[in-house]
Amino acid sequence: MTPARTSSQSVPSGRKPLDHIDRREALRRVGFLIGGAVSAPTVSALLAGCSGRTSSSGPYAFKVLSPDQAELVATLVDLIIPDTDTPGARSAGAHEFIDKMLADWLPDAERDRFLAGLAGVEARATTAHGMDFIALSEAQQVALLTELDTEAYADAENRPASDPPFFRSLKELTLAGYYTSEIGASQELLWMAWPGRYDSDVPVSDVGRAWA
Amino acid sequence: MGLTLPVATDNTHPHPAAVPAAPHVRRQDIYDAIVVGTGISGGWAAKELTEKGLNTLVLERGGPVVAGESYQTEHLPPWEAAFRGRGNRKRWAEDYPMQSQAGPFNEYTAHWYVNDRQHPYTMGRGKFLWIRGYHVGGRSIMWGRQSYRWSDLDFEANAKEGVEIDWPIRYADIAPWYDYVEEHAGISGEALGLSQLPDSRFLPPMPQNVVERHVRAAIEQNFPGRTMTIGRSAVLTQNHKGRAACHYCGPCDRGCTPGSYFSSISSTLPAAQATGRMTLRPNSIVHSLIYDEATDRVRGVRVIDRETKEEIEFRGRLVFLCASALASTHILLNTRTPRFPNGLANGSGTLGHYLMDHHFKVGARANFDGYEDRYYFGHRPNGIYVPRFRNLDARSQSDFLRGYGYQGGAGREGWGRGAASAGFGKDLKERLRQPGPWRMSLTAFGEVLPRYDNFCELDATVTDEWGIPALRIHGSLGPNEEAMRIDMAAAAAEMLDAAGGQNIQQYTAPYALGEGIHEMGTARMGRDPRTSVLNGWNQAHEVPNLFVTDGACMTSAACVNPSLTYMALTARAVDYAVDQIRRGALRV
Predict the structure, then answer these.
(1) CB under 8 Å, gap of 24 or more: what pairs does A124-130 form?
(2) What pTM was estimated for this model as a whole?
């Protein structure tokens, strides 16, 4: 047993954020409070949300990226957001999200530019080391990405917004795919369906991490 | 329920059933009242009419909504959204090219908005965004919930400045009705005692965060007469009339099963239902009104069933049009009779004209240092409000008429900042785990003057699948608004600068009339039947049993969000109508 926890240990005011179990209780209380206004099926449906209401079955089927391209993107996103004390972008499926964006969201011209950018990464790897990107050592991969990163932001002011450097587009898609995933939003960051209250001023340490 | 209204027996006011229905349409029972629309105004009309004992038919052109069950995206986490919140862009381009331009439209709310292909409108001069939600509850489900009283500064402005016509009412006429609707709806906010922004009957205010409090103090210190309060919001900060206090999940407009914000679904329609006197009929598109030339009365409505396309006539002694500003006017324009060839109750020729909105998308943002160790818990569905400070008196005169207020707020930047600068790997991940810099934004919402050439009319060339001619809308800002926009950006930057803001960015983005989703006017109130459609009781000058109590009635626009005023005007109009009928002064 540890001594009584100080304020830095938990969310403020001694009140605990609602975890999934508390949320169930809260929802039941709501049903009681407004008695009958929420039907039993509604409460069940909301409670179903506590345990994840959809589960996609089976592996993701890539629509745009070839197996080699998918492996390259998976490698790249994991270099951008690696495993630490929480899983990284590959574990969170950021490469699958990128494939979906390429297939169903981005205009064709942007999709083609992204694919050309991928080919450019391979070309750099081949030119510098005579090998595919995924065959390089991690140090070589990081060095190559550092080049791309530096170039991408060096002339940021002079580049038209309609023509972003590939690495910036890749980073945007990676961050979007990661931080909106279940891992990124609810493990790496803080996501709560039912905070239950609003405190306008609390120490960052009490919340612990950024809201998703 | 027996008849609750006296039935006129003299020859000039025949029983409504005496007006024969066209032979091919179904005949229905006769109601004491018919309400068209179930949004903020329609919900209030339904509640007030039924609570006063009238058997009331409530018509909604869209489908049913059931609290909770219809809220398909409530609390949906981003990883369960097909496009992680970014939305199905390709489908939006096909089906929602106009609706998707609205700020509140997103992957989680798209299902509340109309399909633009199915519900067309056309544009003449200028671009107009007509943002709509066709379902029971209307836009009361998706509204921004900001709730402000008007003041005499607003009601007197037209007369004092010689702009268009005078309002037929003053603040004293509506103040008790603000009290009345606020008591039921539940408005949270902070009392300030300002004459230009009268206080409501408030539930406790939501708190401002540390940077908002910092900026507020600087504004009050550096700009005498200005302040920055918390938004006055129809979101409950404590349990209220059987509805639960807010649980601070954030995105209200996905729907709220506990009913913690005011909507027709959470508040007024359940009250109307509880009387046992409401007949709610969804999927009922009102084509036009049935008008009896001999008595100057409407006798009911012509409805087209949205699903079967069957034409049905409903009879009623009193009609409340609450379909939204443009939709109510649309119905009147589409009701053409020998006496009113240009639209019912349009002897003045003003029907359709003086269309207004609130112009916005202009303001400033800045970063604030010094509060890096402070954060907030929960998602406050509300921001700040800077009440109007221009043209209040001789000291605050400007080179434009009227004024504006600011909405906005401070928050800490999120993971999106990660792609704005170089860096990747473990360091980036660690950096983005922590909240980013504090950033405060101020967005101005300004008054749009009434102008005859901002108007809507029937488009003879386009009809929808129910055979109703589309609206053709003409609208643009004028020189007064353009002059105001320059000041709106500059004054925001000045206040952020006085508060020590860094990296201050003024911004002015393209704005289309209607984009504020506060469309007002087109059947304005006034004292003179020659220059207005409605009198000071929202009653059509020329058709005494017809009332229009949504945004169509507005004679000017003020700069504050209008919904609370529609609530108060609706409750007031119902009280007047029923009182007049009971006293025999209004024959129906």
Answers:
(1) A124/A148
(2) 0.90
